[in-house]
Amino acid sequence: MLYRYSEVFRTMMMAADLVLITVAWLGAYWLRFHFGIPAPLGVPDVGSYALALVVILPLWWVLLRRHGLYEPRRLGTLVREGIDVLRATATGVLLLLAISFFVRSQSYSRGVVLVFSLASPALIIGLRVVLRTGLRRLRRRGYNLRYVLVVGAGRLAEEIIHRIHDHPQAGMRVEGVLADGAPGRRVAGVSVTGGYGDLKHALQRTRIDQVIIALPREEWQRLDKILSDLDDEVASVKLAPDLLHILTLRSSVENLDGLPIISLRESPLVGWASVQKRMFDLLGSSLLLLLMAPVLLLIVSAILVSSGRPVIYSQRRMGLDGRVFRMFKFRSMACGAEDEEGAIWARPNDPRRTRLGAWLRRFSLDELPQLWNVVTGDMSLVGPRPERPVFIEEFRREIPGYMLRHKVKAGLTGWAQVHGWRGNTSLHERIEHDIYYIQNWSLGLDAQILVMTLWSGLLARNAY
């Protein structure tokens, strides 16, 4: 019954989308030629535009299906669905233009195509907003529910149940949990109603629409038996692999010619996101160099007068994907400061500092030449602070996941620094803050960190 209802709903969605596409195309024709806009070449016959729907409707139907817009999206977001609609319609418009280019016998007004390319996704997204909003309100009130059975009682099962409970608008209700050796136990507030061997009985006893297999990794050997028990059942089955013990960045599932590949460690700064961040860095660093030019010249003069050359000091630091680059700083220590002790971290009242250098480091002004590193692309305005390779070899052995911070460009300032984790402070706390930044990156977060740096980061107590 549920399958039949979902197919009816899906068919209605398809029909509604095709109607909206028709309205968008013919509406675009009407706006262009019957809304008082001059048409120097005359008004074409509406029949030629209506005939184009023979190509447009099947093309859009295929594209919308390929982008998964008729699949159940109970846990999906409207934003994600809207992006998929935009991608499908943009592809369709490009294909339509390509077809009209090769079919010389028929051409269409650029104004009509432009209006259609804006109106069709707007109407389709608008329909989905109305439908999804209505469905989610109904589900919150207990209608249109799907009943779930979770197989497994470990941390992964708890996480799945918590997420289902956190999204009541999805209309999913956990009816029970199956796990061996845990009768009467509750997992995230849901009772364990039996063992793995009770699976078929549980499906017969209670209405279950979906089975989520969430076995802890030490019980994966039970998977074949569980799947065989589900072979002749009508409930849909989803498998959640237990990967919570693996530190991940932006995990995702990719398709390799039909084979699912789970990506565990992926930088969020790819594609358009990387272009946005690079433009933000380039414009921001160039503007700061221009505004700070008098201060930079003053610092250069002060260093020359107080301690002579060199003014700029460079160090080898590790950045994006483990690449080593030269990071620039105003020299704040005496020449040859590392000749005796070698590479060590700065410490309070460090005797190697010059008098001017101590003041520069106190207000982080010695870091200003790194704006040039940002201009050249070795660094970003915001990101994990780069470390010296000689220290990294030690840190990566002692701190699990340390190298994940190199999945983005190093920054002048970062989430860890504005929270006080700079200098000789806890590396574990610093790494946790760096990972948080990478997982939650956005231009808004970058802007927030820059503002926090101006107000608190420059006066951090651990800058010495």
Tell me about this structure.
- It is a single chain.
- A hairpin with a 5-residue loop joins strand 9 and strand 10.
- The chain folds into three domains: 139 residues, no CATH class; 100 residues, Rossmann fold (3-Layer(aba) Sandwich); 188 residues, no CATH class.
- With 464 residues, it is of the alpha/beta class.
- The chain contains 14 helices and twelve strands.
- The longest helix has 36 residues.
- The N and C termini lie far apart (70 Å).
Quick structural gist:
Helix content is 49%, strand content 12%. With 464 residues, it is an alpha/beta fold.
Mean pLDDT figure:
82
Q: Proportion of β residues?
A: 5-15%
Unreliable segments (pLDDT under 50, ≥5 consecutive)? none
What characteristic shape results from the CA principal axes?
flat
The helicity comes to 40-55%
Helix/strand-derived category reads alpha/beta
Total of helices: 14
Could you tell me the number of beta strands? 12
Radius of gyration: 30 Å
Order of helices and strands: HHHHEHEEEHEHEEEHEEHHEHEHHH
Largest sheet: 6 strands, mixed
Order of strands side by side in the largest beta sheet? 3-4-2-1-5-6
Structurally, the number of domains stands at: 3
Task: Give the distance, in angstroms, between the N- and C-terminal Cα atoms.
Answer: 70 Å
